From TrEMBL:
The keyword Oxidoreductase applies. InterPro entries: Aldo-Keto_reductase (IPR050791), NAD(P)_OxRdtase_dom_sf (IPR036812), NADP_OxRdtase_dom (IPR023210). Residues 1-13 have a biased composition (Low complexity). Keywords: Oxidoreductase. Residues 36-327 form the NADP-dependent oxidoreductase domain. It comes from the Bacteria. Residues 1-28 are annotated as: Disordered. This is Aryl-alcohol dehydrogenase-like predicted oxidoreductase.
């Protein structure tokens, strides 16, 4: 795809909003913003997007103080990294932290072909990411999933070589379980685990989150709005295009969707009482789970970004948290967070 430069736009940030605070990813990771921007939807998996608006959204995030930018080399088969490069043109590289996932194999027809995180594939993938991003280093480099054919020690060891060579600053992981976390951390310090976490995806709380905290590993939480389901904007009659994977996601199907949208309406009552939006309360809930948790907001439009950052102003009291729990109890969602084939790749679910 050819990159485009956005026209001048109105600043949609709210000058009265609390500034985005900073944090450290785990005990060994980089200092970064306490909210991050996930870029996947700007290139892939959620249907068509507007490239100029995507770049303008990245600019708005940076101007608001969001410095953690999350991408993957397989998002749009490299397009997302190229888009991020365009968005960062003219910006100081040292002012942002770029997190890159690798290892997922895609076909020219957008199909998924498995994972390869062997040492050679890891180093080759990094070389291509550096070129697409036009940068000398990646702040956090992580395998997207556990490769069943490659011991995690080999993958982390390969990234550790890249750290020593100066091409990578920190090592992260994604969607792995407690045992894998321990094995990886025994090879090299792990900055953070990227894993889905929302009011209706709380599986990590039982074992993964306590283990991460024991090891000093931070959490970067994606899917905080469950792919838009908890945004408060999703409608039961919404038409989903063929390139939007939510058309195959169990939580967006039939009776599951009806059930899950009823949970959203219950959450809306709590949000209305707070004078906030459903999305803001859902994001604030994730942020409230601990200072070691950084929500990744998947906004691809400036208005959605502005709404999401409004969660910074939502302070949840003990009474609020109890009301949220009553509205959306743990385990209340209908349907798995991925289709069966994708669930099988989640080490975190084993």
């Amino acid at each position: 795809m050819t990159s485009t430069t956005p026209a001048a736009t109105t600043d949609l940030t709210n000058s009265s909003r609390r500034a985005v605070p900073t944090t450290t990813l785990g005990t060994t990771g980089p200092t970064t913003s306490a909210f991050g921007l996930g870029l996947m939807g700007m290139s892939d998996l959620y249907g068509p997007s507007d490239e100029a608006e995507s770049i303008a959204t990245v600019h708005a995030a940076l101007d608001a103080g969001v410095t953690l930018l999350d991408t993957g080399d397989f998002y749009g088969m490299g397009h997302n990294e190229l888009l991020l490069h365009d968005a960062l043109r003219g910006r100081s590289r040292s002012d942002v932290q770029i997190s890159v996932k690798f290892g997922a194999l895609r076909g020219p027809d957008n199909s998924w072909l498995g994972y390869n995180t062997s040492p050679a594939a890891t180093k080759a993938a990094l070389a291509y990411s550096l070129r697409r991003l036009r940068t000398d280093y990646i702040d956090v480099y992580r395998p997207a999933r556990l490769d069943p054919n490659v011991p995690i020690e080999e993958t982390v060891g390969a990234i550790a070589d890249l750290v020593k060579a100066g091409y990578v600053r920190h090592i992260g992981l994604s969607e792995v379980g407690a045992d894998t976390l321990r094995r990886a951390a025994a090879v090299h310090p792990i900055s953070d685990l990227q894993i889905e976490y929302s009011l209706i995806s709380r599986g990590l709380e039982a074992e993964v989150l306590p283990t991460a905290r024991e090891l000093g590993i931070g959490i970067t939480a994606y899917g905080v709005l469950s792919r838009g389901l908890l945004s408060g904007h999703w409608r039961a009659d919404r038409e989903v295009v063929a390139t939007d994977f939510r058309g195959f996601s169990p939580r967006f199907q039939g009776d599951n969707l009806t059930h899950n949208l009823a949970l959203v309406e219950a959450l809306r009552a709590v949000a209305d009482a707070k004078g906030a939006s459903v999305a803001q309360v859902a994001i604030a809930w994730v942020a409230s789970r601990g200072s070691d948790i950084v929500p990744l907001v998947g906004a691809r439009r400036r208005d959605r970004l502005t709404e999401a950052l409004g969660a910074l102003d939502v302070v949840l009291t003990a009474a609020d948290l109890a009301a949220i729990e009553a509205a959306v109890p743990n385990g209340a969602a209908a349907g798995d967070r991925y289709a069966a084939a994708q669930m099988a790749h989640l080490d975190s679910e084993r």
